[in-house]
Design brief:
The complex is a heterodimer of chains A (287) and B (328). Chain A is mostly helical and 287 residues long. In chain A, 65% of the residues lie in helices and 0% in strands. Chain A folds into three domains: 1-43, no CATH class; 78-123, no CATH class; 127-274, Tetracycline Repressor, domain 2 (Orthogonal Bundle). Chain B is of the alpha/beta class. Classes of the chains: A mainly alpha (287), B alpha/beta (328). Bound molecules: S-adenosylmethionine (SAM). Chain A: Residues 57-81 are annotated as: Disordered.
Chain lengths: 287, 328
């Protein structure tokens, strides 16, 4: 709960819409935010984004054409981009046994006929494999939610959110044992901005499924709150030994209830402050 | 022939002392300004700093069959002998001078180069070219052995020392200095894991695709034909193999660059004279740094020789840079 309280604190300070930019400089850099640009824009406005690009935006000091555009040429050989994709795909088949580690990528490299050394194409090492997994889970979640859209349409908002969280967590189930180490890797300084970015994409998708169209201050607080719910549920899950993660699903429900209460109070407060400056009533989806 | 500019001792000893602090890059600008205003005019290096920006192949900047030897330009065949001469002379004091002149920073650079960029793995077959006294080669073997131990723990099996490092240098005297250190190494199966080969980087006596990884540390700027060196590197690497190069580069912080120029053009040859009794060899080292292509240009040269995923990273504002690329 301490984590949530912190998130909530951030939510309140967001009145200036610059809180995150101050608090998480890496993230705003990754998102190419400049002062004046609204904080975390609605997803339609997000720049097209690919995982390796983020790594480069944050990490590399080299020039714009970091070999990514290379395609097969006279000297033969494959393009770096293709090799990366193949490696990521092949590495996932070794994660069950080796975890999200360089060893998994080494094994994939050898399987594809390369020297193990090829794993170094991932400059941020296994973090890039973890990011690949996060992206993959998110797109699978969206796909499943899309398939169940009729069923979901008839749900109340809290059920919609709970369903999205459950679907996403279930995708992690095969790798719960490897996950604590992955969390550790992603919490290292060079990877923090990327972690937050992926979390943002995830909760944004979840709210999207829940039909949230808010563009006001609630947009921000809702996402922060859901990020807290998701993260704490994930941490709960990796320690959950109950059958089929029953305890985890209860935990998710409890968290969402708590947050909705909090969220109601919070958005009333935010709207109150907002209306002092300019009398525009918040138009967020009521939760 | 060498544009020698060793200067009187007194001033320099003072400058050298102050520069210890400057190497940190957090140099107080006031102090720097004072230093530069009194020293800069006299101490500008002989031979102007040419902006090296021509096309990718390294050969472009050479006229006819002459190559640069420091700031002077010499015949290609003569170049190799001169370089060899330099390292023959400095060999016995080489390690100590490295510590001395880089304020021990070279150790940190090499650790990073090996630990992060190269990131060795169990069973790796590695080639360290221009390996000199084995500084980088030993580090690589140590990391390989560590990875092998970790693997054995995970598999609950015997440790298998399968990885090997070959240290290659054109200069036998440097290799001999390296061999002397092997017995004292804290590395499992060091003797068995190391081999020493006297050879020119431009024509390596190894079969195609025989190594996983290749390093060249503070070596490539001494090589007469960079393209030949790179294409040999690519040849001996396996598919997927990683080429990593650690080299002095162009400093991109103006204040640091000026201080660094001052230091390297004057103080290094001076220390070289005082400690190793050989200013000219160290004068050459300094001049060859200036002559070497900048980061972007060198990256293009590596790409032009068939490497993929080429990238670089500056350490200490570009005093040194790590370039790396893959054979895909
Ligand atoms: C500055 S030392 C670097 C030694 C070691 N790699 C290090 O980082 O401490 C440069 C080395 O390059 C070697 N060298 C110069 N030209 C060479 C060539 N064409 N082929 C192989 N080695 C060469 C020299 O003999 C010398 O030992």
């Amino acid at each position: 709960m301490a984590g949530l309280a912190t998130l909530w604190g951030h939510g309140l300070r967001a009145t200036g819409r610059r809180a995150l930019e101050c608090g998480v400089p890496g993230l705003s850099r990754a998102l190419h935010l400049h002062s004046g640009t609204p904080l975390l824009p609605p997803r339609s406005a997000l720049p097209p984004f690919s995982l390796p690009t983020l790594g480069r935006v944050i990490q590399t000091s080299s020039g714009p054409n970091t070999g990514r555009s290379c395609s097969t040429d006279a000297s033969g050989g494959a393009s770096e981009g293709d090799v990366r994709q193949e490696l990521l795909r092949a590495s996932m088949t070794h994660v069950g046994k080796l975890g999200f580690t360089m060893e998994a990528i080494h094994a994939a490299g050898r399987e594809l006929g390369f020297s193990s050394a090829v794993a170094n194409v991932f400059e941020r090492k296994e973090a890039e494999l973890i990011e690949h997994f996060l992206e993959d889970c998110r797109s699978k979640m969206n796909q499943e939610l899309e398939e169940r859209s009729e069923e979901i349409a008839s749900m109340k908002i809290r059920e919609k959110i709970a369903t999205a969280v459950r679907v996403r967590l279930k995708l992690m189930a095969p790798h719960v044992e490897a996950w604590p180490r992955a969390v550790y890797v992603m919490s290292q300084p060079p990877n923090v901005a990327s972690s937050l970015y992926h979390l943002h994409l995830l909760v944004d998708d979840m709210w999207h499924v829940a039909g949230d169209k808010s563009t006001d201050l609630n947009w921000y607080s809702k996402r922060m709150l859901l990020a807290g719910v998701y993260t704490s549920s994930e941490l709960f899950m990796v320690q959950d030994s109950s059958r089929d993660f029953e305890e985890t699903w209860h935990f998710v429900d409890r968290q969402i209830s708590r947050v909705l209460k909090l969220g109601k109070a919070g958005s009333d407060l935010l709207n109150f402050f907002a209306s002092r400056g300019a009398p525009s009533p918040g138009k967020g989806t009521r939760v | 022939m060498l544009a020698g500019r060793t200067r009187a001792g007194g001033v320099l000893a003072g400058v050298a002392g102050s520069l210890v602090r400057a190497a940190d890059a957090r140099l107080p600008s006031l102090w720097a300004a004072r230093l530069l205003s009194t020293e800069a005019e006299e101490a500008t290096p002989v031979g102007s700093r040419d902006p090296r920006r021509p096309g990718p192949k390294a050969d472009d900047e050479e006229v006819g069959d002459s190559v640069s030897f420091g700031f002077s330009s010499v015949d290609r065949s003569e170049h190799k002998g001169l370089v060899k001469d330099v390292f023959e002379k400095v060999a016995p004091k080489y390690d100590a001078m490295n510590d001395f002149m880089s304020f021990f920073l070279h150790r940190h650079w090499k650790d990073r180069f090996v630990g992060i960029t190269l990131h060795p793995f169990a069973g790796q077959k590695h080639l360290d070219v221009a390996g000199g006294t084995g500084d980088v080669g030993f580090r690589v073997l140590r990391e390989i052995r560590r990875a092998e131990e970790a693997l054995a723990v995970r598999r609950n099996a015997e440790v298998e020392s399968a990885g090997e490092v070959c240290i290659c240098d054109i200069n036998g005297a440097m290799l001999e200095e390296g061999k002397k250190k092997v017995a004292g190494l804290d590395i499992r199966d060091a003797e068995r894991g190391l081999s020493w080969v006297e050879s020119d980087a431009e024509s390596l006596p190894f079969d195609d695709e025989s190594f996983d990884t290749y390093t060249i540390s503070f070596g490539i700027r001494n090589v007469s034909d960079i393209d030949a060196c790179l294409s040999e590197a690519r040849r001996v690497l396996k598919r997927g193999g990683h080429f990593c190069c650690l080299e002095f580069s162009q400093v991109n912080n103006e204040v640091l660059r000026q201080v660094y120029d001052l230091y390297s053009m004057n103080v290094i040859p001076y220390i070289g004279q005082a400690y190793a009794g050989d200013a000219h060899s160290y004068q050459y080292l300094v001049e060859s740094i200036r002559k070497f292509p900048d980061q972007e240009h060198f990256k293009e040269i590596i790409e032009a020789n068939g490497f993929r995923g080429v990238r670089y990273e500056n350490l200490l504002d570009g005093v040194v840079a790590i370039h790396s690329g893959f054979k895909l």
